[in-house]
Amino acid sequence: SVVELTHQSINFKTITNTNTNSYNTISNISLSKAPMRLLVTGCSGYIGGHFINTLNDQWKGQTLDLYASGYKPDHLTNSYFGKIYTDRIELKSDKSVFHAVKKFKPTVLIHLAAISSTRVCELNEELCHDVNVKGTERLVAAMKEHCPDGKIIYMSTDWVYGGNIEHGLYHENDCITSTEPPKTEQQQLGFGCYGRSKVAAERVVGRMAKSQALILRSALVYGGPSPTNGGKRSTLGWMVDALKTEEQSLNVFMDETRTPVFVNDVVSLFFTVLRCVHRAGVPHPHGWHVLLLHDSEGEELPSEDDDCDETVSVVINDGADIELADKPLVLNMGGRDVVTRYELAKRLAHMFGRDAAHVLNPISITDNSKRPQNVAMDSSKLRSYIPNACSTPLDKGLAQALGELC
Fold this sequence. Notes:
By secondary structure, the protein is of the alpha/beta class. The chain is about 35% helix and about 15% strand.
């Protein structure tokens, strides 16, 4: 379905960020000559729902054509939206994917859709591969055919890492997504069927989209209730439900280490990235390395006519040399706090005024080999491009989420 919305004057809230240094907001964007055409998959999911809700509430300043796959069209009321498409894209169908991309011709694709239930992936590896890997390949192939200059943001996972408890924090090069074989035992190819499928999808994105692709490896995402599916409990939802019940004891892993990221921070990051695309103008020939690097340093972006060799090395904030070859930009996207699931639940119980010793039952992940013991990530590379990205302190994020959940 397509809905045409006419422009009218509406007062929208300013985007706010829980960090001390707020990101640049959508209202600060220098307007591009052409409107952005944004395609988002997975809009009925947790992250996608939060992002589209915020986009609907806070996008302002320029007309945006939006394809929100699977979203309810009557919920999209922003007067700055131009054409709105909400037909669900079936990732298992070549016809569905290519038809949608050919019809809409997005300048930016945010690909969030996936089978993320690790249990479902283990029980049906063929379905997992068809959606997570082949579905991603269909999308990228359609983008390359119908909008070759379009930018791609692919949502990956911390499960691409091996899960070794002795490893410490994982860095981006601890899992390579090129076609080369792993150089060390640390460079494992994902944990479980779900992790392996996301590594394979990363390779597809990198091989086909190259520097036009930004790959974000997301940590465990927490926050308020799902805006699109009130009956589906979020990461914190099931913990909160259990803590509300006096009689119930909550089983939580004491040896699964993560770097949880606040969903509001993820949404803010998406807005910041979209700002970079707007500032550059769409379509723009240069890759994410150039877009984010120049934007973080406040430099003028190269124009389409400028000679910009992306094979040169540059130095970013942490002093590290980065080879700007024709490769995707891969960034870990985790919070600053490193905690086990038990420690996360313990902090939540404390906010409830409950005694963790009485309401929490710590269990070992060694009794459940289908989960990684450690996928905690170092996200300093992300913050070298976008300072203070995904930096809300865990306690502050939990408090805000708890207020929305209760």
